[in-house]
Amino acid sequence: MTKPVQLSEIESFDHEVDVLVVGHGCAGAAAAIEARRAGASVILLERYSGSGGSSAQSGGELYLGGGTALQKACGFSDDDADNMFAYLSKALGPHADLEKIRLYCDGSVELFEWFRACGVEFVESLYDAPTWMPPTKDGLMWLGENAWPYNEIARPVPRGHRPAATGFGGHAVMAALSATCDSLGAETHTDTKALSLILDGDRVVGVTARKFGNDVSYRAKAVVLTTGGFVDNEQMLADHAPVLLGHGKVSDGGDDGSGIEMGMAIGAQTRRMGFVEAAYTALPAMVCRGMLVNGQGNRFINEDVYPGLFSHAALHQPGPCWVILDEAGFDDVPPADLWGVRPSYAAETLAELEADLGLPPGSLEATVAAYNRHATESGTDPLYHKDAKWIRPLEGPWAAVDPRISFGGGDAKGTGFSGFTLGGLATDLDGQVLSIGGGVVPGLYAAGRASSSMHGEGYISGTSLGDGTFFGRRAGVHAARAVQDAGA
Amino acid sequence: MTKPVQLSEIESFDHEVDVLVVGHGCAGAAAAIEARRAGASVILLERYSGSGGSSAQSGGELYLGGGTALQKACGFSDDDADNMFAYLSKALGPHADLEKIRLYCDGSVELFEWFRACGVEFVESLYDAPTWMPPTKDGLMWLGENAWPYNEIARPVPRGHRPAATGFGGHAVMAALSATCDSLGAETHTDTKALSLILDGDRVVGVTARKFGNDVSYRAKAVVLTTGGFVDNEQMLADHAPVLLGHGKVSDGGDDGSGIEMGMAIGAQTRRMGFVEAAYTALPAMVCRGMLVNGQGNRFINEDVYPGLFSHAALHQPGPCWVILDEAGFDDVPPADLWGVRPSYAAETLAELEADLGLPPGSLEATVAAYNRHATESGTDPLYHKDAKWIRPLEGPWAAVDPRISFGGGDAKGTGFSGFTLGGLATDLDGQVLSIGGGVVPGLYAAGRASSSMHGEGYISGTSLGDGTFFGRRAGVHAARAVQDAGA
């Protein structure tokens, strides 16, 4: 298992196809659609009994911009690819892949139209408040573009594109993409788990798989690995991304890194295997009205930043972190944004609250005093640059919310974090997998979280469905053309 | 280059040997010594014109304990392997390799005697002050064992063992180990750069190399990769440890990751490729008398911790960081510990200093006020637990030192950080390289910074020469025995 099989070891193949796509999530569907449109025969392998993968269980946000029809319909006509690039290259950094982000931004308007042509519907209205996920069907939302320092780096324009679904919308995106695969004649073989790449010399010429306990082999002229990341593989996490050990997993349970390992086993390059996305169970609508402090009672970021970024910062703080609110702030949170979260502690004074939370005596007092001093004197936050609209002097009584308690309340206390991995196989701009020592692995492609794509150490919602489909499409096109060139 | 060569492609070999060691630093020397003692013929390949590698250019500290003769001679008779393990497993963490640390601690007294038997000399006295490197020949020093939280986790005992050299002592360690290699009949082939592993099926059976522009081939029954880390390989840094991009490099210039890539090219597992050591140009003797603050004017760690650990914390802070001292603190630093460092800024008030350093108004004032409040009330540091002996209320006039300026002064301003990589090939306890998909790569070993060893996200001086020799020795023994078993 995982180690490659030599072509000479295969007596006969059960299936033959031009382009074999391993994994039917968003990246796989996009690769299949474009390979089929380019004239190649296509089979998708899916380990579970239906298509969709982790993509279908996601929020469904698509990070798109540069002047999409939806942005314009919502009154934002001043975005362009350069402005989008300025934001995304910072927000996904440090160490983001600028070449991939550039290409992605240049193709973003077209990608939006591609989604619509595949049947994804968008409601032409903006949800204009801080949140992880709007409680409405609004098609557009802010994803941190209007928070410091990004509002000084690029013109602030919302780019969170959402399918017409309340709450989690990934299923709506995947229903449309999978239907498009079907209509184009890309076959999906479900309950089929790919195990190993088949090699003819250096070239990948197929995969072996298991279906209901039986071996099954596929001969292909090109193989596209879209098997997802490795958050469900404890050994790979320990080896490559131990920061996520013990935390919740954002996946459908099948992100076991199998595609990444199949590539590594034949000397494929990997990239940024330690980079992760992590979301923290703190409510944006709450923290922007108060503060987020670490286990030493210090603030560490502007609380109105994209919540994925305050989450990532919290992951690296001495914990546990706390949401601190005064009574007026708590009362100001719109009921629809409360998500069942209640104060874990309440106290008349900060000294009492420090004792309740186990914070060093005087630490929270000093933090609030500095915050209030600037709120009073200038109505600003010179330490972390939270927007002035959220700034006012805080005064007791006080409340603290423990983000280790899940949204919806209850008593169960976890770590508060859940995430997934961003590192994977190194690919070029057409999804070709790079080889250790130079060049590409002939016949092998990767996209989505099985590959390392645009992300540096930062993460913004919608960039996984975004880059998975964008670079999945490019891989599908390139693979189909390579097949035709070889056959010509 | 880098990609493996098949045995069938080699017409004839230039050299044949039982155990081929690639890289003559501390790990390679240790492997060669023990393989030779176990009866194997041994050749060491060294890319440069003489042995020593990055080990010879290092400080020469050896992290040893558990009751060494040197510890006892200096009056520390209460250490043992469990106590050493308690410290090291925390200080090298989070995510340290507990199994390797356990073995290392259990073998530490013996490893010290091994160094002495190889001819490394130690002066039986303690240097008892915070420093990166003592200005004396004292053989023992503290490496953070007496700082919070480690002083509560284990009985504080110094374990920094230093060869009898003033300043950098790595050359003294390597001179002894290389002489031992020579005396045992392990040949060193200098100016010989290994390029590729030679494979017979799955088994490693040699390497190809270049010497003065000519191809040269080595047939071996076992290959031990001790080629060092990859801090000198910009592409590998960008792919795997971008946090070090742009910073100084702690190496002899040859840590190009070639051994790691040779392994990856044949499907060897890697581990923790993103983990790094980073040292910051801030003087321990200075920061413990004042404070270390980040770009928001906040402290972030107890300043008397092992300097490698405050360095690592600083690397992840919003920068730039500053050393803040009052006049009394500056005057209290022993002249021998000043290392030519002078204040970058001086000011009568903290408000002036904030303006000079570009810190948010009031930020440093709030930090110092909290520090002084506890210094006055209780003489303690409840936020970060710096030892009480360093705590007193600070008062102006003030000085700030910019760690981006090198020790020794001058005007050149870099990043202040220099480091090396800790990730590499995944190995078992005998140095056998693990294969993607399970099992080991037959005939292949790795040790030193070419492998992932004991380290998690933390680093303590002396653990590289320490684990390089410890696991290098084990690899040499195992390789020699495997050769004998195969020949029997």
From TrEMBL, chains A, B:
InterPro entries: FAD-dep_OxRdtase_2_FAD-bd, FAD-oxidoreductase_2, FAD/NAD-bd_sf, Succ_DH/fumarate_Rdtase_cat_sf. Residues 18-464 form the FAD-dependent oxidoreductase 2 FAD-binding domain. This is FAD-binding protein. Gene3D superfamilies: FAD/NAD(P)-binding domain (3.50.50.60), Succinate dehydrogenase/fumarate reductase flavoprotein, catalytic domain (3.90.700.10). Coiled coil: none annotated. It comes from Nocardioides dubius. Pfam families: FAD_binding_2 (PF00890). Its cofactor is FAD. Keywords: FAD, Flavoprotein, Oxidoreductase.
